[in-house]
Amino acid sequence: MKQGQGNKGPSEKDILAALSTVEDPELRRDIVSLGMIRDLQVSGGKVAFKFVLATPASPARNELQHRAEEAVRAVPGVESVEVKTDASARAHSRPGPPLPVKGVRNIIAVASNKGGVGKSTVAVNLAVALAKHGARVGLLDADLTGPNIPTMVGLRHGCQAETGLMPVMCYGVKVVSIGFLLQPGMPMIWRGPLIGNSVRQLLHELPWAAGGELDYLIIDLPPGTSDAPLSMAQEAPIAGVVIVTTPQSVSLEDATKAVTMFEKLNVPVFGIIENMSYFLCPHCGERTEIFGYGGAQEAAKKLGLDFLGEVPLDAQVRVSSDEGVPIVEREPDSPVAKVFMLIAERIAARTSVQGFSEATGTK
């Protein structure tokens, strides 16, 4: 850091004092104490610094940068302000087992208590959305007996049958699925111990760090409370889990079972996503609540969880999945893609809060 000369301009102390008045809305601490201000340089009336966000997908990115600039400009003697923005996701860490996954800062699981709610579609689009926000992202298909992620990202089942399983870059995301080893239609019939061993290998024996450490690894869990989610919780320090459900009144019962399981496993639940929430007519824009309304939101309220968002029912989502191009990539300006981008921001913010709380011992 370089100090201003004489009385020609403000001091570093003046600038830091001004910046300390800006608070991160998620972490509820000022940006100076959070270590977000780096490489501060003060030369006369010229001020330059790097503003490092807690996550590349911060929903407050533009607001915080604007407030930081305005706070500095208000300091007497400041003539110009140069800000470079960067982001560094805080690594999730928890004392004791399970062991961290090498090259992965945060693991986020996407789960549901039953099939057919569009969980894998949500997982794929959230991963791509986080990548579009500038994060380094991986996607692990942990549904070992019914993998369908390959189809959703446009890769052929069995494409790595001869070469061995390795992450494949798709739409800016490192993707791994046991489906890369299985020919179409081939069933995977495994008992619990085999599933546990396979989960361990997928997490700890693949080069997730190749090409750079991942900010987020999204894990698409199989539905229910079976061996795979249990093994995943035992083998990886999961930062948090997102529950996907639908609007029906039975959502409360289904969400409660999933939440209870993860609470018993000491895995934080970030919140609930309501998929197929409503239908927007592509011709007139009228909203129709085909499966009812509010079930997931009410479940979140009763369980004391965040309601992360409602994803509309859109035929183009199905088309995109069948064609192997996630809707966030295929139609980024569509209403459903914008919802996924917003939910991705909320999850990234929740991950930052969780990591900060664990690191500082606060709640």
Number of structural units classed as domains: 2
CATH class of the largest domain: Alpha Beta
How much of the residues is beta strand, in percent?
15-25%
The spatial strand order of the largest sheet comes to 6-7-5-8-4-9-10-13
Contiguous helical run count: 11
What would you report as the Rg, rounded to the nearest angstrom? 22 Å
Number of strands: 13
Within the CATH hierarchy, at the fold level, what is the topology of the largest domain? Rossmann fold
**What would CATH call the homologous superfamily of the largest domain?**
P-loop containing nucleotide triphosphate hydrolases
Tell me about the largest β-sheet: 8 strands, mixed
* Arithmetic mean pLDDT: 86
CATH hierarchy: architecture of the largest domain:
3-Layer(aba) Sandwich
Overall, the morphology is globular
Overall helicity: 25-40%
* SSE string: HEEHEEHEHEEHEHEHEEEHEHHH
